[in-house]
Structures
1.
Amino acid sequence: MDDIYGEYGGYFYVPMTQAFSLAIPVTIGCSWNKCLYCDLNHDNKFRKLALEEIKSHILRLKELNASRRSPVEKVVLAGGNPFCLDTPSLINIIKLVKEHFPEVKNISSFARADDVLRKSDDELLELKSNSMGELSLGIESGNDEILAFHNKGVTVEENNKAMAKLEELNIGYSTYIMLGLGGKTWSKKSATDTGKMLSNFNPQVITLVSLVLFKDAKLIEKVKTREFIKLKPLEYILEERLLLENLNMRNTIFNGTHKTNTLILKGKLPEHKELLLKRIDEFLESNDDRDLRDFEKHKWRRWSIE
Ligand code: SF4
């Protein structure tokens, strides 16, 4: 698959909700690429693939999928935030996808709030009518100080506006939330603010990931100067508990099964909230930081082979 995904280097990734979707390269890297904690795009400079390049990947993927028993029904546009592309470009890509995979029912991608807000309602509706949905928004935290510290480039208000807009237009989306992003200073604040913020909305899935210190991320400098103090393993779980306590969702999957998380947890909210809290309490009772040290050591290695 190097001929298709090789340019992404060691960190090819798609939204967790799209793990079984066919990934079609559309952009390389992220158009923002300034978040302190992120080194997912490594040395990749942001680049939009030309339509001809995308077409050649689609043709190759068509060839590779020719013997599949079931048709390709779900596609994810790959890259840090392919939704930053303008609407005509996205429509051209969708047309190409549908020409070669006519049974596609949903086309998804990672998106930043500003990518959503840059598009008019009419554009978003046009994309929706062309099968774009299940967007994956990197919300990360409901606290502005944390977003600003990490140079996220969007505010809580913008994240709120993007989610409100998608819901108003009935476009499905999931959110990424990052445990530990506030470090020791803002751990509790992040959990309560994020829980309260998400409770105003109705994402299909809340995908929980845990902060990993990437060795080349700018955050490392802040760790060295003690401007950022990373949580200990059990503190991630305490933050998760507080977040869950503050979540009052109507119909959302709580997915904490990402490999960066110490405790693997998944359930439906609100139905499973008490059960999930009980699982967390049991975990906290039977583990201490020493037990979890090995897991922490391997987080980085596990990421690098994703
Ligand atoms: S927006 Fe996402 S992909 Fe881009 S730099 Fe920030 S965390 Fe990384």
2.
Amino acid sequence: MRVHLGPVALKGRLVLASMEEHTDLPYRLIAKEFGANLVITEMGQPDRIAKGDKAALRMLATHPSERPVAGQVLGGELEDTVAAARVVEERGFDLVDVNLSCPIRRVIARSWGGAYLKDPARTGDLLRRVVAAVSIPVTLKLRSGWDEGSVNAPEVARIAEEAGVAGMILHARTVLQAYRGPPDRSVIRRAKEAVRIPVFGAGDIRTAEDAVRMLEETGSDGVSIARGCLGNPWIFSRAQALLAGSPLPPPPGREERLRVLLRHLDAEARFLGRKDLSTRIVRLALYYAKDLPDFDEIKRAAHAARSFDELKRALQAAFRGCR
Ligand SMILES: Cc1cc2nc3c(=O)[nH]c(=O)nc-3n(C[C@H](O)[C@H](O)[C@H](O)COP(=O)(O)O)c2cc1C
């Protein structure tokens, strides 16, 4: 089933969610290859993008083979957010995704991100300005509401549609909930019923079956997969199989996990332009081992490595050592 975000047609219903420190270009290309129909960058800080800050612009690195792709901008000060959206367009993205869902304290303290949901009129103003500033479609990332006493995603969804937004991803937790407690999927259904533009559901999609359940339970147009795809791009291929009515493919074996992990590490090293042994790289590697019975041993081996190449050798030995 195709999903249309304005003139941008997605070939299917699965989205790789935006995740800071995770959904960089190398991982987006892997997720795409495994079946993600839309990939989204990590959130960029609008003031930094607007100023041309190198690290912020690096997050907006893209490649034609990952298209369709959205560049995400955190909702910040109005003029900066508009300027940052223009940069996203100039860089060749198909869509600009505005993040009004971020619950991080320093973001909220500046009335950015999820703080917008406290004020639907301010949200409407921002979205109208961004839509007017770019010629690519604008999408919105939002949550159920600010807190459990002010769940307003259906209202914000309508305001966004009126502002000209082409679609939205709704994480069915409130901003104050952050990542705690179960998502309330009934909000996704209500938001979907409130608008004609596509709504993608998000929250606790850990398996391919969860993705299908989300679509069935909420009637949403698509589903956005976040933590469930860390070290697990197979979640996309497995969910695509279920959506096509095929049997669920078996989970990847150790050799297959290792193969994709090593490719991912090499792609990161190329992207960063150096072979780093940062906590980020070790963490990335360990996600691929998280479901294995000997995770603790693999973790010990990974932490003992003193260089990037040593890490790769340690992982090879650990993944192959125990079957
Ligand atoms: C480590 C991490 C980083 C995240 N970074 C972003 C981000 O940059 N932009 C964004 O819109 N959402 C971000 N999110 C939220 C996810 O996109 C997603 O909405 C949320 O995790 C709910 O899905 P899940 O329960 O399946 O993980 C992040 C989540 C995590 C766990």
3.
Amino acid sequence: MTSAPDPDVAVRRMAAESLAGDDPTGWFERLYAAADDGAAVVPWDRGAPHPLLIDWLGRPDDARGQPRPAGTAVVVGCGPGFDAELLAGHGWTTTAFDVSASAVAAARRRFPDTTVRYVAADLFDPPRAWRQAFDLVVEIMTVQSLPVRLHQRATEAVAGFVAPNGTLLVVATARTGSTEPAGPTEGPPWPLTREEVEAFAVGGLTPVSVEQHDGTPPFQHWRAEFRR
Ligand SMILES: C[S@@+](CC[C@H](N)C(=O)[O-])C[C@H]1O[C@@H](n2cnc3c(N)ncnc32)[C@H](O)[C@@H]1O
């Protein structure tokens, strides 16, 4: 009896080939292109916005005790686009970018009437105009999709998008003593330690909150907010 191929194995193979070739982001385009052809499944495509983003947007702004006033927003590593569409639906003027041109094209096809500006761009070489340009920056599981040696650079790049008085929201899988061994992890993903989450307080950002949300290990998450 033959069993269906495990989609996670194909994803890990693509990632391993990219990483071995010192191209830590190349596999994302290969994965999204293969998904377009029905030859792969994008494992993080939830078909919906992240629940921790939905919850956060529904809360009053702690500083003002009022609903959050919508302004400009950018979604980092937007992938399928559901988080960007949620923000746009809340009135945010939203830009969303991904290193994979196929991911961006798929998001545009999925949401043909969108007001979101979807852009193919690399976090490590973003348009200069995005520097401190957004009232809200949403980073969900992009930094953790990169090898640990790139986390600091990626974190600083994300923080650099936040405008004066702006907010950064980070959601990431948690790497804690209770869910992960203390030594180096073999990714992807490379979940974030508390120290790595706190490191988003860089270049003038200060932490507002760092929360750990329990789930069944290893599905514990950080949700952290920072302000410039
Ligand atoms: C684990 S997925 C998360 C996608 C989305 N944020 C979500 O929560 O569904 C990581 C995403 O980051 C994108 N990505 C990885 N490295 C990137 C980079 N250097 N610049 C822009 N996007 C990147 C990948 O293509 C992928 O869509």
4.
Amino acid sequence: MKIFFSTSSPYVRKCMAVAHELGIADRIEKLPNAAHAINRDANIVKSNPTGQVPTFFCGDGTVLFDSVVICEYLDATFGGKLFPKSGRERWARLTEHAAADGILGAALLARYEATLRPETLRWPDWSSSQLKKIRSGVEWVEGIAESLPDRVDIGTLAIGCALGYLDFRFSDMNWRSQAPKAADWFAGFSQRAAMTATAPRG
Ligand SMILES: N[C@@H](CCC(=O)N[C@@H](CS)C(=O)NCC(=O)O)C(=O)O
């Protein structure tokens, strides 16, 4: 198995954290690439029309994207313990996954605005609206924080990666002051081997 990888991508991190929890991370070869929202990497585009990381090669010719699909594929193929199979538990965990990815989507857009868009073309209302989305996502996580302890599943892994990305790229936001219960949970969860092994860099 192979993955177009990045040490700074929270979506790649989520896939690799899932792989670590399933005990198969060392079976995934990390492929270098130059994923970039403006200067797209044609080599990724050959396999994934979005040109984004993560892009995953199953080893039998199948290519998977995006991270939501890759995470569920890994779990279904190598253990089946991180995604509940059916019922309310499943929808709850998938909704947590979506909330975490919602935080990340807004965070990435805000970052691109601040780092990629030429300064003269920047639109402050755009950035502040993405920051509001991040904040309402964090508030949502705080609302379910009492359900997080003692769970290792796609919901907690995705939320852990999203909060970790805020620490990595948006430390000025001080999300912990807005979400003290989630912060307490995150302090412990981020010490899991799957989280320390995938901590963002770059
Ligand atoms: N929805 C995608 C998002 C992936 C994504 O945004 N990846 C970023 C890196 S964190 C990327 O490849 N950016 C380059 C681009 O957008 O072209 C997923 O869940 O995998």
